[in-house]
Amino acid sequence: MSRVAVIVPVSPFEPLEILINSAKHLLSLDYDDFEFKIVFVVDKNGPNDDRGKKLKELGIEVLERNTTRGKRAGAINDALDYLRDFKPDYIAIFDVDSRPERNFIVKCVEALKRDEKAYIASSRRYISNPINFVSQTVEAEYYLINFLLKKSKFKQFNGLIGVLRADLLMKYRLNENAVTEDADFATRMHCLGYRAILVDGTKVYEQAPLSWGDLVAQRKRWYYGGLQLWKYRKCVLATKNWGFMFSWISALTLTYAIIILLPFLILAPPLLIYKFRSFKKVLVTFGLLIHTILLQYSAICAIAKYVKGRGIEWSPIKRVPQ
Fold first, then answer.
1. Which of 122, 138, 204, 287 could form a disulfide with 157 if both were Cys (CB 3.0 to 4.6 A apart)?
2. Strand 99-100 vs strand 90-93: parallel, antiparallel, or unpaired?
3. What is the 3-state secondary structure (H, E, C) of 18-65?
4. Contact assessment for residue 128 and residue 97, using Cβ atoms and an 8 Å cutoff
5. Which of 29, 4, 13, 200 is nearest to 93 (CA)?
6. Residue 308 — φ and ψ, nearest 5°?
7. Strand 90-93 relative to strand 61-65: parallel, antiparallel, unpaired?
8. H or E element: which one contains 314?
9. Contact 150, 198 (CB under 8 A)
């Protein structure tokens, strides 16, 4: 019988209602005949923080931290230590806004069992909160991301949302000094000859930023983290895996000149109508225009901070209860 652990890192800013909804959803997933446990790693926001207590009442295991050391990466690493006695075969990582379909874990574990060189299995991403102009724009962007995930030889699932081989995650752990610990880990795994699997037949939903300000803050951090990955360039080139090399370098160059995509927005209206079967979605074309300009701004800001040796600030993103 396989053992599966689920880890959910929780920042000090996440409201209790979001955590309760997350816990209930994860408890409702199909775990087949796996032996499993769900662990929320809660970074406390003060001595009166009772979010962990409320989660325990639902039957969730809680690891509380009186620190934000390493932020998300630190929380996951601490969970790995907590889980050593459990000795999981697979570890699923989700964020509090992750809403995987009921069969997600089973499908991902099946995929990993079929491919011994895969370190992670995950699915296409979709937006669960397309409730305003900004989130509807990101929803459209995700269809492009899903297309690239299928084609790329460097599949990097944001947040490492998916199911990973526990032995690899336990051995190599997350880099707590990396701004984007997910991309850092993905690069290291690919350099070691492992790969990521895009699983069909299941999906995972997550929330998009609801304001342009939140989007810019999020993407500045992503761009900054991408710049840190260049330290692995020699390892990447040493693989001699041309597909991986091309995809990795493209991800760290072309995305920083996203403005070159502006002329292609002329194709957006018919594609949006086809994808969403709604003429109203044509308005999202203007959102994509704003989105592209803001991404370019975010890339320039991240590059400037990186060159000057300044860090990047982390700020919470507003969520809606789901």
1. 122
2. unpaired
3. HHHHHHHHHHCCCCCCCEEEEEEEEECCCCCCCHHHHHHCCCCEEEEE
4. yes
5. 4
6. -80, -5
7. unpaired
8. none
9. yes
* Cβ-contact 58, 38 below 8 angstroms: no
Structure tokens at 47: 């001595």
Is residue 187 within 8 Å of residue 229, measured between CB atoms?
yes
Q: How do residues 130-167 score in pLDDT, each as one tens digit?
A: 999 999 999 999 988 888 888 899 999 999 999 999 99
DSSP H/E element including 121: strand 118-127
Quick one: tokens of 226? Answer: 């991408």
3-class DSSP assignment, residue 297: helix
Q: What is the SS3 string spanning the chain? A: CCEEEEEEEECCCCCHHHHHHHHHHHHCCCCCCCEEEEEEEEECCCCCCCHHHHHHCCCCEEEEECCCCCHHHHHHHHHHHHCCCCCCCEEEECCCCCEECCCHHHHHHHHHHHCCCEEEEEEEEEECCCCCHHHHHHHHHHHHHHHHHHHCCCCCCHHHCEEEEHHHHHHHCCCCCCCCHHHHHHHHHHHCCCEEEEEEEEEEEECCCCCHHHHHHHHHHHHHHHHHHHHHHHHHHHCCCHHHHHHHHHHCCHHHHHHHHHHHHHHHHHHHHHHHCCHHHHHHHHHHHHHHHHHHHHHHHHHHHHHCCCCCCCCCCCCCCC
* Residue 133 CB-half CA count within 13 A: 12
Residues listed for the chain:
322
Edge-to-edge strands, sheet with 3-10: 61-65, 35-43, 3-10, 90-93, 162-165, 118-127, 195-206, 99-100
**pLDDT for position 272:** 85
Structure tokens at 295: 């991404």
Burial of 289 (0-12, 13-18, 19+ CB in 10 A): middle
